[in-house]
């Protein structure tokens, strides 16, 4: 089995990073976490990556006069290490079309909503304000338009009476930690691939299950 070399880009504590590292520790996982990279030198996830024996690198975006020069340094670091695929995991920078196109089809993100609902930030608050009864998270390929890329996988949670932004975020985050490794496995095994701007799946799954809220 050929394992693809993965870079995880973070800006903070890296909780989704940890779930990917743990999944990749399995002998049958088709990806190797080769690098964790942050735009913030003080990101907590860098030390967690080092503790797991993974190279951890910071490239401080504040040290660059333009967004483009920062991304050129980012791209150079990734290319030098032979990275095949990028996972964004709480990377709080909007990437330019140049960088996105350079890594087209080789970069995914996890977003805390059921896209295309609630693109951008404050997704849990907006879900509660809109009164939706289900919410969740999405893994998608990255395209120049924010949170608009082809969808690889989604997980759904109920929104229950009394939910707050924090309680809903906690429930969604637990699903993120399961969904992201599953989506990365699908991609690296070739069971989910981009074709004509859409994700094509090799497997067929049951349509019998459903989540209803309220039950």
TrEMBL record:
N(1)-(5-phospho-beta-D-ribosyl)glycinamide binds at residues 14-16. Its EC number is 2.1.2.2. GO terms for cellular component: cytosol. The keyword Membrane does not apply. (6R)-10-formyltetrahydrofolate binds at residues 67, 109. GO terms for biological process: 'de novo' IMP biosynthetic process. It catalyses: N(1)-(5-phospho-beta-D-ribosyl)glycinamide + (6R)-10-formyltetrahydrofolate = N(2)-formyl-N(1)-(5-phospho-beta-D-ribosyl)glycinamide + (6S)-5,6,7,8-tetrahydrofolate + H(+). It comes from the Bacteria. The active site is at residue 111. The keyword Protease does not apply. PANTHER family: PHOSPHORIBOSYLGLYCINAMIDE FORMYLTRANSFERASE. Catalyzes the transfer of a formyl group from 10-formyltetrahydrofolate to 5-phospho-ribosyl-glycinamide (GAR), producing 5-phospho-ribosyl-N-formylglycinamide (FGAR) and tetrahydrofolate. This is Phosphoribosylglycinamide formyltransferase.
């Amino acid at each position: 089995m050929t394992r693809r070399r993965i870079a995880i880009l973070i800006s903070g504590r890296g909780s989704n990073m940890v779930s990917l590292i743990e999944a990749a520790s399995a002998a049958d996982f088709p990806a190797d976490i080769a690098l964790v990279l942050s735009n913030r030198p003080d990101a907590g996830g860098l030390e967690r990556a080092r503790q797991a024996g993974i190279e951890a690198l910071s490239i401080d975006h504040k040290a660059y006069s333009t967004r483009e020069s920062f991304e050129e340094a980012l791209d150079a670091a990734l290319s030098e290490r032979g990275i095949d695929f990028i996972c964004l995991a709480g990377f709080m920078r909007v990437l330019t079309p140049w960088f996105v196109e350079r890594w087209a089809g080789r970069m995914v993100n996890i977003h805390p909503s059921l896209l295309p609902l609630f693109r951008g930030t404050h997704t849990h608050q907006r879900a509660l304000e809109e009164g939706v009864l289900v919410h969740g998270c999405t893994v998608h390929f990255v395209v120049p338009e924010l949170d608009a890329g082809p969808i690889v996988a989604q997980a759904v949670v109920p929104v229950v009476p009394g939910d707050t932004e924090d309680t809903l975020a906690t429930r969604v985050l637990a699903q993120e930690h399961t969904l992201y490794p599953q989506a990365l496995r699908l991609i690296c095994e070739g069971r989910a691939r981009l074709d004509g701007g859409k994700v094509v799946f090799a497997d067929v799954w049951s349509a019998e299950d459903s989540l209803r809220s309220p039950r």
